[in-house]
Amino acid sequence: MKKLMLATAAAALFAGVASAEDVKLGISLGFTGPLESMSPNMAGGAELAMKEVSDSGKFMGGAKVTAVRGDSTCIDAAAATATVERLITVEGVKGIVGGMCSGETTASLTNVGVPNGIVMISPSATSPALSTVEDNGLFFRTAPSDARQSEVMADIILEHGAKSVAVTYTNNDYGKGLADAFEAAFKAKGGTVTINAPHEDGKADYAAEVGALASAGGDALVVAGYVDQGGSAIIRGAIDQGAFDSFVLPDGMVGSAIEANFGSEIDGSYGQLPDSQGDGKARFTEMADGFDPTGAYSGEAYDAAALIMLAMQAAGSTDASVYKEKIMDVANAPGEPILPGELGKAMELLAAGQDIDYQGASSVELIGAGESAGTFREIVMKDGKVTTVGYR
Questions:
Q1: Any idea where the domains of the chain sit in the sequence?
Q2: What is the rounded CA–CA span in Å between residue 63 and residue 327?
Q3: Which CATH architecture has domain 7-145+277-372?
Q4: What is the largest CA-CA distance in the chain?
Q5: What DSSP string describes 12-24?
Q6: Which residues on neighbouring strands pair with residue 197, listed in sequence order?
C-alpha cells in the first residue's frame, strides 16, 4: 500500500539531492543485430519521456534528464554486458531502460546491473525466466512475460482454425522460452505441435531447417524468431519451397521489416505483440515526434523511462537503492491516474506528497516481481501491411 509523504518531508528529501544537475539515464537496446529495425522507435519513446520531464522543470528541483544510448546488439551477452558497464561506470547513469532481448538482459543485469546496484526496466525482454532471476529488487519490465503471450497465441491460433502447428524458434533464451511455453499452452488447449525446432541466426542457408519443418507439417508455422534475422529467412525458405502458406508471428516478428520483406506474400498470416489501446496510447501517439509510435515496444519504452523518473521523484533521490522501492508504488493504484503528457503534473503531485497511479502508454500495471500484467494487440497481414484486428 502506498504511504503518503508530507510535503515538508518531501522537501527535506529533495534538499539532499543535487538540484538542477543533469540526471543521466541509459538506454541499452539492440541498435545493431536481429531487431535493429525496432530499436530507433523504442529509443524515441524513452527519450520522449525524458524530454517531457526535463521540459516540465518539475523534476528533482529543476534537474534535466539526459539520455545516453548504448548498443546491446540484442543477442551478444558479452557486448551487452560491456555496454551496460560503460553506461554505469563511465557515463554515470542512474538507471537504465533495457535490455532489449532476454538473454542479453539477463547477462547484463546479473553481471553488471545487480553488482552495481542499478535499476533496469526492460520494455521488451519477455522470457519467463526473468520472473525469478535474482535481482535484489532492481529489475522491472513493462512488457508481459511470454508465459502470458503463449496463452494468448494459443487462443488466437485455435480461433483461426489451426489444430496443428510446426514451431521454429531462435536458439536463445527468448526463442526457447516462448516456444516451450507455447507448446505447453497449445497442447493444454487441445492443439498439436508437430515439431518444435531451433534455428540459429546469421546462417546463409536454412534449407535443412525448412525441410524438417515441412516434413513435420501442420496447419501453420509459428516463427518465434527475429524479423531482421533468421525468422524472416525461415519464412522466405518456406514460401519458396511451398512448405507453408500461413505463418504465426509473435512479437519479435511484428515490425515494419515484415512488411518490407514479404508484403502481400504472407497475407492472412497473423500474430500478436504486447500493446494497448485507450487514452494513454492515443496521447502517446499524438505526442510522438521523429519516430513511429506504433512501432513494437515504443510505448513500453516511454513507460520504462517514465517509471524510473517518477520513482526518483517519489523517493526524493536518484540513488537506485532508495528509489527502487517506489517503482511499484507509482505504477499502481491508489492515486491520481497519469497518462502520457502528464509527467509534469505527476512530478508536482509527488513533490506535494500525493499518490499517483501511472498508467502511461501501455496501461501499466506491475504485478509479482515487478513485471507487467500486459495486454496484447492482435494483428493480421492484410494487403501487405500489419493490420490491427483487436486487443486481448
A1: 7-145+277-372, 146-275+376-391
A2: 20
A3: 3-Layer(aba) Sandwich (3.40)
A4: 70
A5: HHHHTS-TTS-EE
A6: 168
Q: Is 6 exposed, middle or buried (0-12, 13-18, 19+ CB in 10 A)?
A: exposed
Q: How far is CA 169 from CA 17, 101, 125, 173, 198, in A?
A: 47, 14, 16, 10, 5
* Cell numbers describing residue 43: 529509443
Please give the grid coordinates belonging to residue 168. 521454429
Please check whether residue 251 is in contact with residue 357, taking contact to mean a CB–CB distance below 8 angstroms. Answer: no
Domain 146-275+376-391 belongs to what topology? Rossmann fold (3.40.50)
Burial group, residue 88, by CB count within 10 angstroms (0-12, 13-18, 19+):
buried
Task: Give the pLDDT band of residue 21 (cuts 50, 70, 90).
Answer: confident
231, containing H or E segment: helix 230-241
Q: Which of 296, 300, 363, 243 is nearest to 121 (CA)?
A: 300
Confidence at residue 198, expressed as pLDDT on a 0 to 100 scale: 98
Q: Give the integer Cα–Cα distance in Å for 31 and 37.
A: 8
Q: Identify the CA nearest to 38 among candidates 125, 113, 139, 150.
A: 125
- Which of 1, 2, 58, 7 lies closest to 353, judged by CA? 7
391: which strand partners?
A: 377
Q: Are strands 356-358 and 336-338 parallel, antiparallel or unpaired?
A: parallel
Structure confidence by residue, pLDDT tens digits, 170-220: 999 999 999 999 999 999 999 999 999 999 999 999 999 999 999 999 999
Tell me if domain 7-145+277-372 and domain 146-275+376-391 are identical in fold.
yes
pTM score, whole prediction: 0.89
What size, in residues, is the chain?
392
The crossing angle, in degrees rounded to 10, of helices 343-351 and 7-15 is 100
